[in-house]
Amino acid sequence: MIVKSAEFICSNTQISKLPPPEKPEYAFIGRSNVGKSSLINMLTGKKGLAKTSQTPGKTQLINHFYINEQWYLVDLPGYGYARISKSKKEDWDKFIRTYLDKRESLQCVLVLIDSRHEPQKIDVEFCNWLGEKGLSFVLVFTKADKQSSIKTDQNIAKFRKALLATFEEVPQFFVTSSESKLGKDEVLGFIDEVNKG
Ligand code: GDP
Fold first, then answer.
1. Nearest alpha carbon to residue 178 among 25, 8, 77, 33
2. Domains of the chain, each with CATH number or no CATH
3. Taking the chain (197 residues) in consecutive chunks of 10 residues, what is each chunk's mean pLDDT?
């Protein structure tokens, strides 16, 4: 897929104000600082589309971007801020889980995982929750340019193994770098395929 147009539509703090669920939607989510904004900008070819390095604890927003006048790319707030209050964490949880669980136009969740790290409990638990809810998801390993491909492969293997404790089959995964554009064609190609049904 070639991204010809990518337009910011709206930021929401309320589920009731989301755009009508009339277009296929793909949600991007991950720990704060995982490289989500950079990945969205890389995929769309628009540098300032998603705001990079947002201040932790800032208002939690669901951002909708309209791609090729065909589908929505949804930027969900990051999880796992160390310095966020318990009540804010609970608000995040309720807001995002309600969105994910109830959004009828949601086709797939793209769970971003930092490829530099060994499996993190919060990421594994989030994937397990998606599985429990029967939500379709894929893994997108980020920042692959930051270490050797051997190290990346090792961390991916460990993550997949961690998921195998719960899942019979591990989901599809992509290896990406916003610096080198690695994985761009693969992720966009995947979305294209799902859109075509
Ligand atoms: P977000 O909080 O998940 O939206 O993460 P950002 O996109 O703001 O990225 C967090 C930090 O990681 C920033 O300093 C980025 O420049 C850096 N970063 C993100 N993706 C990559 C990548 O693919 N390669 C490298 N080398 N750095 C990255």
1. 33
2. 6-12+22-196 (3.40.50.300)
3. 95 92 97 94 94 61 95 91 73 88 97 97 96 97 98 98 94 98 98 95
